[in-house]
Amino acid sequence: MALGSQEESKGALFITGTSGFVGKRLLRQINPADYSRITLLNRQRTQLPGHLAGIAWVRQIEGTLKESELYSSCLDRHTRIIHLAGITGKTERDAYFETNTHGTEQLIRAAERAGVHAFLFVSSIAVSFKARDGYHYAESKQQAERMLQSSRLCYCIIRPTMILGEGSPVLRNLSTLAKGPVILQPGSGKIAVQPIDVGDLGKLLLAIVAEDAFGNNVLEIGGPEVITLADLLQKIHLAHHEKPGIVIRFPPGLLIFGFRILENIIGKYLPATAGQFASFCNSGTIQPDAWWSRHSGGLKNVDSMLAGLTITGPSLVDDPRARECSAYTRYLVNQEPDSYIQRKYAEAFAAGRPLASADRCRFESLITRISTIHPIYTRAIDGYCKFFYRDSMIRKKLVLLLAILECSSGSTGMIDRTDSYGPPLMLLTFLTQMTRSMVLLLIATILFSPIRLALDCAEWLSGDRRG
Amino acid sequence: MADFTVVGSGASGVHFALTALERGCSVEMIDVGWTPNSVALTPDSFTKLKETLADPADYFLGRNFEGVSMPDGNPGEFFGNPPSKEYVFRRLSRFEPYAENFAPVYSFARGGLAEAWNGGCYPLNEHEIEDFLFSYAELEPYYAQVANRIGINGEKDDLAASVPWHAGLQAPLRLDQHSALLLSLYRSKRKTFQRRLGCRIGHGRLAVLGQDLGGRESCDYLGRCLWGCPRQALYTPSATLRECLTNPNFTYTDRHYVRYFRYNDSGRIENLVVQPAEGRHHREIPVNTLVLAAGTLGSSRILLESVFRESGAVIRLPGLMANRKITVPYLNLLMIGKPFAAESYQFHQLAMGLDGGRPKDYIHCLITSLKTAMIHPIIDRFPFDLRTSSFLFRNLHASLGFVDIHFHDTRRAQNYLTLDTTIGDPDYPRLKICYSETDDNTRESDAVLKRIKNALLRLGCLVIPGMTRWYPAGAVGQYAGTLPITNNPAQQWTTNPDGRSNDFENLCVADASTYPFLPAKNIAFTLMANASRVADRVNYSE
Fold first, then answer.
1. How many Cβ contacts (< 8 angstroms) between chains A and B?
2. Nearest-neighbour CA in chain B from A42: distance (Å)
3. Contact between residue A244 and residue A319 where contact means Cβ atoms under 8 Å apart
4. Closest residue, chain B, to A435 (C-alpha)
5. Are B509 and B274 in contact (CB under 8 A)?
6. Which residues are CB-contacts of B25 (< 8 A; sequence separation ≥ 6)?
7. With contacts defined as CB-CB under 8 Å, which chain A residues touch B392?
């Protein structure tokens, strides 16, 4: 595409993975007037923030990194790439490499062919961990870094530390350890961490682009404050409680060992991989360099990050609706709810949907609590309710959330976009899904039917039934 | 005083008014006329709207999430009415009819019930019209006139054997892949379908613009027909009302409800009694010629209350007719795993006609491939947990569809409208609807269902077990027959073929109350054409 000289001076931006935690925040910080063209590549179309919606030169492409034919025409010598897309959290080993390594490789090749101006790759501080055996996420990122370093592109690799802020997956996991009356602390807690706020990270990414700071370099980026993991857990605890929590330590090495054995047997049903516990064994701080030192003024410290979180966003720990919304969204569309989904879910209850905000009986309360632990439990309970507890609140909540999710561009594709299987593979996948569904239903039926009977009888005898 | 005082702004009312205005007469229209609160007018597609709207859930589900179809609710339609169409069904509690075994559907919206219709425009053929005491040839020019006014598309194909081809039609819309596949399969087995099954399939006749007309723009396949087309490509009667409003001889009084009319001893109507829709103070409007176009339930209720007020008599209007409808969801095996057409005309694009015992017993079916829709009610109906159901749905979306089967109805004495003055506020006697189906109806429905299943099977489609829906009587919203056309002027509560009342000298009925037979087809188009015809006839006789 031919650009005028003024347009050339602005340059085009190509960003991958803006439906993720960092990407969504970055979009809110972009000034569209600074760029001649902004192209976003996501697996599913996402909800654009208001200031980007309807702007002619902001375009979304729905596709994966591997589908370079979809996006290669958007790359040219004026383009700067911010590559955020990647698989994080718990998934299978091959999935990390498929997206984080091979997907990045495809993007690098397409960028080389187009002769793009510069490539900003958001990697992870985990790449610099010394002990990361079995941490497939870090390994996949490291391989991607090497591919970029051996390419013909002008690049900058950044390795952010632990990223906090509204909707932070890391914070949600840490909250699980610190939210209760006692703090579950991995090891001695002396591991140093240097969290960075997601908003600050966005600012720094845009600063690199604006300053054209692409010197084929690797920048480690963190917040201004280094604290121990123990202190961080205590701060998170204090965000929800008035007094410091009692600490119960558990050896992370033992946990990693146990998870590694279980991973090979029931990996799909574990809440995390063994490798993910590497963060508890490695220092998560940066090697400051001149660029970071120049830009670190004004970055949020840990208290600000946590204070901002508890003031502005619904707390997953304290707000049962937010907890439900998070668990149920992960069950329905395999991703965390964004703030819009969280807000609409809460608004629905405020508007009296679904019918009553209180769970009606002890059994309902019990399965509601269980259903928020992990998506696998949600699925088992959903199946049970579909067949044996049709007027349950959980089913209504799930349908309500499904309705909200189908309205949001960030999640509608997960519900309503045809998978790219052929009919035979689709049938096979469906049979697998159905088998899983039936097994869970069977387990849930065996487990919950007697409990329900007992609780209903107890309520009937005590005349305590409310609903 | 206007030449005509028209009650109601639905399909009949606005076309009567426009024709009368075109003849140089003056028209006053009285209407409740609810209007929508807000409509997203950006010309974005259904998918794009989810990105561009600041609060898409507010638009699609409503401020109070009333658009969410909960598991404990009724199974609902595939296309349940969205919050943006809530105003079409907003009621007046004081005038709520009393009905047993009947689900009345009516509207006080500006434009009437057709503000939430599917655009189907199917003219009646000579057999369906044989009881009307006027011929198809007499009505045909009005079909053409209305087609030119509102913009209807269609194709002269096999369906023309049952759905007459007339002037004024535009080229058909682009078919979505699913509909195109069904049509090509039908055409390759045409003889089998016609001889063995007595079945014909063709393009739907749709009130959707293929080219710009007046201030309305042609269809751009945004997939937003249900929520309200921002280009107004899908015709609704409010567009004709807007056209009327540009005429200086037209007066529109909205937010008013017509209670009854006062007449003198010689049967001449002198005044119309109206009250604010949200108030209780009556006022009287003198009338020259009164035109009832408030729909069968509305027009009949006005007449019933008028007679009650003047004479104290509670009369019955026998012969109420209502279409029956069955919806049959199916799975097109040839479309499994294909992406669904999001940017497409949303409602039915194909129609199917089944021969009945007699030519007028024709059964009319609409074939709708599932495109854009709120999908959570469908996913919820699958017999699995939501995760599995979602997986199944997204891979079957393009292969899902449904056939709406519509049946005709005949006038029967046991089905009638009357007033119930014994319940509720004595100042507001309520309309009472008495309607019952016959065993013949059930037998006919079963037989037709078998034929539909057979036809679908030959098109590579399987009927989804357990999802066929039988609608309660009245749920289609098409009623007729309470003030029927007759050639016997001495018969009470009837009209002549020109819509003139045989009981009141200056009363004219322009809606379906006068129909002596209710065909299976959507009658909205015939309502428009016949109202224009009546306007012409009344005008000449005046």
1. 150
2. 13
3. no
4. B388
5. no
6. B2, B3, B4, B249, B539, B542
7. 430, 433
For residues B10 and B30, the answer to whether their CB atoms sit within 8 Å is: no
Q: How far apart are CA B8 and CA B251, in angstroms?
A: 13
Enumerate the residues of chain B whose CB falls inside 8 A of the CB of residue A404.
57, 61
Q: Is B320 helix (H, G, I), strand (E, B) or coil?
A: coil
Q: Which residues of B touch A379 (CB under 8 A)?
A: 385, 387
Closest CA to B341 of B376, B369, B374: B369
The complex's ipTM works out to 0.89
For B70, nearest residue in chain A (alpha carbons): A396
Contact yes or no for B51 and A60 at CB 8 A = yes
Tens of pLDDT, residue by residue over A347-383, are 888 877 665 544 567 888 889 889 988 889 999 999 9
| Most distant pair of Cα atoms in chain B: their distance | 71
CA atoms within 13 A on the CB side of B374: 32
Instruction: Assess whether pLDDT exceeds 70 at residue B300.
Output: yes
Among residues B417, B418, B472, which one has the least CA distance to residue B441?
B472
- In the beta sheet, which residues pair with residue A159? A220
Which residue in A396, A419, A433 is closest to B71 by CB distance? A396
Write down the pTM of the prediction. Answer: 0.74
Strands B324-332 and B469-470, bridge-based pairing:
antiparallel
d(CA B259, CA A426): 60
- Considering only alpha carbons, which residue of chain B is nearest residue A416? B394
| Best-predicted range by mean pLDDT (B90-104, B189-203, B430-444) | B189-203
Q: A434–B388: do the CB atoms touch at under 8 Å?
A: yes
Average pLDDT of every residue of chain B? 92
What is the spatial distance between Cα A46 and Cα A142, in angstroms, rounded to a whole number? 28
- Give the Cα separation of A266 and A256 in Å (integer): 15
* pLDDT score for A271: 59
Instruction: Give me the percent of chain B exceeding a pLDDT of 70.
Output: 97
pLDDT tier for residue B539 given thresholds of 50, 70 and 90? low
**What is the pLDDT, as a whole number, of residue A253?**
74
Pick the more confident residue, B373 or B145: B145
Q: What is the pLDDT of residue A310?
A: 47
